[in-house]
Amino acid sequence: MTGIDTIVVLDLDSQASRLLARRVREAKVFSEILPAGTRPEKLKALAPRGIILPGGPGSAGPAASRCHPGIFHLGIPVLAIGAGMGLLAREFGGEVTGNAAWEEGVSTHAPENTSMSAQASEDAPAENRENLEIIKEKPLFFRLPAGVEVWMSRGDRVKTAPPGFAVLAATVNTPVAAVGDDERRLYGLQFHPGVFRTPAGFTVLENFLSGPCDCRPSWTPGSFIERTIAGIKEEVGNGRVLCALSGGVDSAVAAVLAHRAIGPQLTCVFVDHGLLRKGEAGEVQKIFAEQFHLNLVAVDAAERFLGRLRGVVDPEEKRRVVGEEFIRVFEEEARKLGKIDFLLQGTLYPDVIESMTEDGQTVKVKSHHNVGGLPADLQFKLLEPLRLLFKDEVRVVGEELGIPEEVVWRQPFPGPGLAVRVIGEVTPERLTLLREADSIVNQEIAVAGWSRKLWQSFAILTGEKSTGVTDGQRTYESALVLRAVTSEDAMTADWARLPYELLDRISRRVIAEVPGINRVVYDITAKPPGTIEWE
Ligand code: XMP
């Protein structure tokens, strides 16, 4: 982003890079992740206020070997961590040794948990934690408690500081735990990046940003909104923009931002495929058309979708049918609108990073759900105003834009919607049954204050029936599955330990209020080995 203080994080280890980039932004400084092998000339042209090399917990890996030593000679402050510190020390003639004792019997992979709130003390093996003796407080180690616990990196160790560098901190086992040269503003830390999850680690990072890098805290939701609106105006000019509004947070925030920038030049198409949750279609129209005055075309295509889903039981076939029909409906609406210049998409930063090549170019960003397969004669330029944001930043921007909480904090919802939560054939009757039950589930979860603690919570209508007894009468009706999971990114998930009382209330209400369901079971399968959805 031009005209804003930027820190470049070189991608020596993807997990550590993302963690650091997010922590820098929490300190209100914009950060950008670039490949480890980014050329020094390119960095110079970008003129960041500082560079961070966040090595992972192991020895310098293949990514670190792509790092160009010229990055240390640009006159830009560098904070090199773990394997990054090894590179720095080697470049300036320090002595670096492999640390066999650390490697023995211990995995060099970072822990799976990427939680921003996780404490290092939970993740780090006890033998990795050491107490830091600070030798020189400024510029990195002031405002730190004495003997602060750090999480020492395994792998390469710097034995002696390079000429011109001072040893800034030590521990009992690590005599060279941090080195620095204040004149050239180059610093190396032997601690694992996980330490930045702790308040003390965050202080070290803040000290680097405000001291050697002299960064102003200018990365705020307000400044992002202002700059992005100006950027959209400039990019779009008098052009027309089309957006597929799904009701999810990404497309909602992208649409409201674009609307602020270009008003009626934006048209949003909302396709109601009849597979949404109770009340959802009406809510989307109310919020975006009535409250935000977006130019909204709402298409009620439920009959078309249900017609095509008749007799379809295979989950992948359901997905294919829904995806294909979505594109058809969207395409028909787009053609009715005449000439459109841009397609607005809610692409986020993690997708951009994933599709980055070694020289820092993005090749092909994953297409946003459902609109990736438009025909060749409907060619638009892409407008992606959220491409620099992490998901949590999108929510903050959404709140700042005044988008209601139920949209900003909406749980992820699959594109094929309830079609993959009705096991077996999707019929209007079975959809109604699931919608009612799902609504009770989420009402009770909200009342109990659990909604935001969960990644997803929903009901699944199984194809199984079981006997029961109601008012002395034998029943033979459907079984409902309740699924509630915690997760960071949907790659792994755990079943939520919901209180028994909450489970009890949900079960009683569903069976009493939804005729056709006489049994509720709770899914206690983690991912892996399970998946979050049942189909
Ligand atoms: P699984 O079931 O694979 O789901 O653990 C991981 C995450 O992806 C969502 N999901 C989908 N999202 N189209 C989507 O847009 C789909 O076909 C689809 N299938 C699963 C799921 O809700 C969870 O958040």
Describe the structure.
The structure is a single chain. This protein has 535 residues and is an alpha/beta fold. The protein folds into 3 domains: 6-210, Rossmann fold; 221-408, Rossmann fold, CATH 3.40.50.620; 421-522, GMP Synthetase, Chain A, domain 3, CATH 3.30.300.10. Helix content is 33%, strand content 21%. It is built from 17 helices and 21 strands. It has helices at residues 14-26, 40-46, 62-65, 83-91, 100-103, 120-123, 199-210, 221-236, 249-262, 280-291, 302-309, 315-336, 349-354, 391-400, 405-408, 428-447, 500-513, and strands spanning 6-11, 30-35, 50-54, 78-81, 95-97, 129-131, 133-134, 149-151, 157-160, 166-170, 178-181, 186-189, 241-244, 266-272, 296-300, 342-344, 381-383, 456-470, 473-487, 493-495, 517-522. It has an 8-stranded mixed β-sheet with strand order 2-1-3-4-12-11-10-7, with helices on both faces. It has a 5-stranded parallel β-sheet with strand order 15-14-13-16-17, with helices on both faces. Strands 18, 19, 20 and 21 form a 4-stranded mixed β-sheet that branches. Helix 11 (302-309) runs antiparallel to helix 12. It is globular and about 85 Å long. The chain starts with 5 loop residues before the first strand and ends in a 13-residue tail after the last strand. The model is unreliable at 100-122 and 366-370 (pLDDT under 50).
User: Helical percent range?
Assistant: 25-40%
CATH class category label of the largest domain: Alpha Beta
What CATH calls the topology of the largest domain is Rossmann fold
Do you know the CATH architecture of the largest domain?
Answer: 3-Layer(aba) Sandwich
Bound molecules: xanthosine-5'-monophosphate
Outline the biggest β-sheet: 8 strands, mixed
N/C terminus separation: 41 Å
Give the spatial strand order of the biggest sheet: 2-1-3-4-12-11-10-7
Q: In terms of per-residue confidence, which ranges show pLDDT below 50 for 5 or more consecutive residues?
A: 100-122, 366-370
User: What would you call the shape?
Assistant: globular
Q: Please state the average pLDDT score.
A: 90
Radius of gyration over C-alpha positions, nearest whole angstrom: 27 Å
User: How would you name the CATH homologous superfamily of the largest domain?
Assistant: Class I glutamine amidotransferase (GATase) domain
Which structural class is indicated by helix and strand composition?
Answer: alpha/beta
Q: Number of helix segments? A: 17
The overall strand count is: 21
